[in-house]
Amino acid sequence: MSRPPRLWISSATPAKGEIIRVRVQIQHVMESGFRLDWNGAPLERNLLTRFEARLNETLLMEWEPGASISQNPYVEFAFAARESGTLRMLWLDDRGMRLEAEREIILSPA
């Protein structure tokens, strides 16, 4: 992982009840362990094993990707804005890599 996640949020200051769309992409090799290197030895498996998104402590989405997911996975999800807080996203992989990204969501006054 050489770059931070690419993150887009439809609105960081939504009205209460507004639907917020989130798009996020990380750079990751997603090596299945089935390919061989130039010497014919298998490349070590290194897949994302978990993605989760939370607003404060509320779980919004969790995903356990598998070997069929392409490099640099892209995730899109939506949720209704019910409270202000910190939107946190977490990725874990086979090698113990832990990557986090966060954005503040602040409800606009009605």
Query: What class do helices, strands and sheet pairing give?
Result: mainly beta
What would the CATH topology be? Answer: Immunoglobulin-like
Label the CATH architecture.
Sandwich
DSSP helix fraction = under 10%
Global mean pLDDT: 92
* Order of helix and strand elements from N to C terminus: EEEEEEE
Strand sequence of the main sheet, in spatial order? 4-3-6-7
- How many extended strands? 7
Globular, elongated, flat, extended or rod-shaped: what is the shape?
elongated
> Which strand-content bin applies to the residues?
35-45%
Number of helices: 0
Question: What topology does this entry show?
Answer:
Blueprint: E1 6-9, E2 19-25, E3 48-55, E4 58-63, E5 74-80, E6 85-93, E7 98-105
Antiparallel strand pairs: 1-2, 2-5, 3-4, 3-6, 6-7
Walkthrough of the structure:
This protein has no helices and seven strands. It is mainly beta. It has one domain (6-51, 71-105): Immunoglobulin-like (Sandwich), CATH 2.60.40. The strands form two sheets. Strands 4-3-6-7 form a four-stranded antiparallel sheet, with no helix packed on it. Strands 1-2-5 form a three-stranded antiparallel sheet, with no helix packed on it.
What's this model, at a glance?
The protein is an all-beta fold and 110 residues long. The chain has one domain: Immunoglobulins (Immunoglobulin-like), CATH 2.60.40. It contains no helices and seven strands.
Please name the defining characteristics of this protein.
single chain; 110 residues; mainly beta; Immunoglobulin-like; three-stranded antiparallel β-sheet; 7 strands
